[in-house]
Amino acid sequence: MTSARVDEAIRESIGIYGMVDPITCRKHPEIDGALQIIDGEHRLEACKELGFPQIPVVVIDINDANAKKLTIISNETRGRAERVSLSQLVNEIADELDDENLRLGLPYYEDELEDLRKLSDMEWGDYDSDKPAGDNPKEDVSQIIVKHPQEGFETLEKSLKEWLADKYPEAKVEIKQ
């Protein structure tokens, strides 16, 4: 399930750049002459809404279990961008585009994009997790508490939680104002 903004961003991106990532299908296991989508349902819907007369499709010969596995791989391995690096990249793009063109095709509502852009302005050195707590900091850290003033707190909270959870997967992460 995607948000309305992600669906809108898919349509915008395809409208601007065309269909750069084909739909992945296989022969439908139960319906002769039909295809079953493995990856690309949202792109297919966007192409239909945009009135594309043809949609690029890659058809692969794959069994049921591997089709399900490939669906998971296709959706899960695209990964999530590291938020601070993403913020820096978005700000670099913003130097060349006005706000309206910056947001076009990106899967963020205006307030989300604004929050994302603020992340690269944070003083991340104050949150350096590479300073060892012992011989193996990932094993030594069981709880992390970060205190941060109200200003900028909401912008920081989500990204910091993700970052700390990635660095210290066994630790309980708690963010306080």
List keywords for this structure.
single chain; 3 domains; alpha/beta; 177 residues; 3-stranded mixed β-sheet; two-stranded parallel ribbon; Conserved hypothetical protein from pyrococcus furiosus pfu- 392566-001, ParB domain; 5 strands
What structural class results from the helix and strand content? Answer: alpha/beta
Order of helices and strands: HEEHEHHHHHEHE
Overall pLDDT score: 79
Low-pLDDT stretches: 131-139
Which range does the strand content fall in? 5-15%
Distance between the termini: 32 Å
Named CATH architecture of the largest domain: Alpha-Beta Complex
3D structure, described in words:
- This protein has 177 residues and is of the alpha/beta class.
- It has 3 domains: 4-76, Conserved hypothetical protein from pyrococcus furiosus pfu- 392566-001, ParB domain (Alpha-Beta Complex); 81-121, no CATH class; 126-177, no CATH class.
- Helices cover 47% and strands 13% of the residues.
- It contains 8 helices and 5 strands.
- The protein has helices at 4-17, 41-50, 64-76, 83-94, 99-103, 110-119, 137-140, 153-167, and strands spanning 23-27, 35-39, 57-59, 143-147, 172-176.
- The strands form 2 sheets. The protein has a 3-stranded mixed beta sheet.
- β1 (23-27) and β2 (35-39) form a beta hairpin.
- α1 packs across α2 (41-50).
- Mean pLDDT is 79; it is low at 131-139.
In short:
With 177 residues, this protein is α/β, with parallel strands linked by helices.
